[in-house]
Amino acid sequence: MNNLDDVDAMKKLDPSGVLESTGMFADQCQQAWSEASKLKFPAEYDHIYNVVVCGMGGSRFTPRTIKELFRDRIKEPYEIIEEYTLPSYVDKDTLVILSSFSGTTEEIISCGQEAIKRGAKITAVVKGGKVAELLKSQNAPGYIFDPKYNPCGQPRIGGGYLLMGHAGLLKALGLLDLSDAEVESAIEFARTFGSSLKADVRSDKNQAKQLANTLLDTHPFIVTSEFLRGFGNGFANQINETAKMISDSRHIPELNHHMMEGLKRPKSLHQNGLFLSILSELYSDVTKKRFRITKEVVEKQNVKSLEISLTGPSKLAQVLEAYTLSGYTTFYMAMRYDTDPVAIPWVDYFKTQLAK
Predict the structure, then answer these.
(1) Residue 143: in which H helix or E strand, if any?
(2) What's the predicted TM-score (pTM) here?
């Protein structure tokens, strides 16, 4: 469809209610924080010396976002695992967090079983399924949520549960100092910002619709830095799954050490490539300078660039602002491609073949 202001046509392409779920992101965050941050853990959870989070896809980029956002505030080493097995150092002093929206992700179940064998402390952010059963078998506490604000059911569209569920869990464990006031202010900012991106807001006043049209038929490189690095990974994931279009997540300063030399080839990059830089006044001065010079280098090599500046009053507010924008943008991209945004036929095919 060419007209993103035709709300009725969009609803026909969206039978599962992705648009409705996208509009509930702030509600997901509010529910998850208010519930997870109030969990009570037994005394043995006071003796934790490292944290390992096991997650895949939409249940991975959310804890990674928390890791990057609060890297200067999380009190113990915090690693994301995206494998079937745990690192060798995991032992009785390790907290293993099983992150799985559905609770049926086989890699996460495998890690959970291994964690139990090693005597590690376990918890989870999960809707239910086998992961929840593992918790119950060990009488282990965790955040088992009811995703009432995600009617479409897709994990990546219910990211608020995983995102603020992890933050709340760390708060409850005493591993992250984060006040209710800071969280509520950030959520309220995201809620107000999201109202400007809704389907009934016309394209000429809707940043998400404009960005969706710009990204169409490009190969975007989502460029972030510092506290937004986890979000960059999440945005790329959403473009892949929701819009069914290729994308990559890159970050400064790492890309300055190699990637800029790769912009000469292939020639198609000069037609389809797009550097989408996510800017923030909360970046350090040296990072801001790197973004400016990177833009210059990219454009000198005839690769298109685009900048999005976040305006939230805090780092957490800007992360929630960014996810609000990316959620709506990728939904509108799916609409432009006449694609059901919830369908993931190739992921489903792969899982079916793997199960044989």
Answers:
(1) strand 143-144
(2) 0.96
From CA 17, how far away is CA 28, in angstroms rounded? 15
Peptide bond preceding 266 in cis form (omega within 30 of 0):
yes
For residue 182, the surrounding DSSP H or E stretch is helix 180-194
Q: What is the pLDDT of residues 257-303, one digit of tens each?
A: 999 999 999 999 999 999 999 999 999 999 999 999 999 999 999 99
Cα separation, 247 vs 168, whole angstroms = 30
Closest by CA to 154, choosing from 8, 326, 355, 18, is: 18
Is residue 303 within 8 Å of residue 267, measured between CB atoms?
no
**Are the C-beta atoms of residues 324 and 194 closer than 8 Å to each other?**
yes
Q: What six digits make up the tokens of 154? A: 């897709």
From the number of C-beta atoms within 10 Å of its C-beta (0-12, 13-18, 19+), residue 153 rates as middle
Q: Is 50 strand, coil or helix?
A: strand
Give alpha helix (H) positions in 102-226. 106-118, 129-137, 159-172, 180-194, 207-215
Q: Give the distance between the most distant pair of CA atoms in the chain.
A: 60
Per-residue pLDDT reduced to its tens digit, 295-316: 999 999 999 999 999 999 999 9
Reported as a pLDDT band with limits 50, 70 and 90, residue 97 is very high
Predicted confidence at residue 101, as pLDDT, reads 95
Residue-by-residue DSSP string for 333-348 = HHHHTT--TT--HHHH
The Cα angle at residue 177 between residues 172 and 179, in degrees rounded to 5 = 90
In one letter, which amino acid is 223? V
Q: What 3-state class would DSSP assign to 121? A: strand
Mean pLDDT for the stretch of residues 137-155: 95
Locus of tokens 């992360």: 319
